[in-house]
Amino acid sequence: MKTRRGAAVIGLGNWGSSLAAALAGAGLLLERVHTRRRMSRSKLDAQVLWLCVPDAAIATTAEWLAAQRGDLSGQIVVHSSGALDRGVLAATERAGARTGSVHPMMSFPTRCVIGLKGTHLGVEAADAATRKQLFTLVRRLGGRPFAIDGKGKAMYHAGAMFGSPLLVATLAAGVRAMRAAGIEEEEALALLGPMAAATVANVQKQGLMRSFSGPLARGDAATVKVHRKALARHPLVAQTYVALAGIAAQDLPSSDRRTIQAALTEGSVENRRRR
Question: What is the model's pTM?
Fold first, then answer.
């Protein structure tokens, strides 16, 4: 059997661009393929064929790849979706490939290259041997691999959303509230940003429980009621506040948990009855 090496990146979007740069830096990049239309001019003979296309395009790209290559024996085909398991690569598996997925726990908002050193990457693989190879590859890129079960990927990815896109959305909710108080967005971000950065640093250093503060931690239900009254004019922000505060009241330390929970649900029954 032919000995293959290196990796080919298929799809050079935000994540694919950073991945290709990391592979090139490690001397492992054999080929970059921008779009499926140009794949017909590509050899795609690398040991690892890494699909970095949108989730909705993974299965069809895998089918096209299997049809073009015919025999994928000796090759590993992976995708980088956080929500989908390796089952979407079934067409390449039928063509002889081993399959897996490698998802970066990092945000790639633009095409600007972001280094992978120290980045955690979740690895799902068809078998132990494939997992070992993918772990080795991730480490050569400077990443920190961890194993993930394909059956739990959707829940895992939903959780990961809170680490970046929904964290940004939370700050956007804060900006909305501050703008309603007469503070412009630029100034609101200048106020919220350092506090958010310090909070994340505290959580990383000393955990969730010891990083929680403010009226919810103090059990200050009166302040929570004042917040809810002010936010009543902004339903979406109010819903976000109540949902996140509800998680806090249930999972994080509070000197008066029951009173906080009551303040968060006060009026809910009456509102449902009115409807």
Answer: 0.89
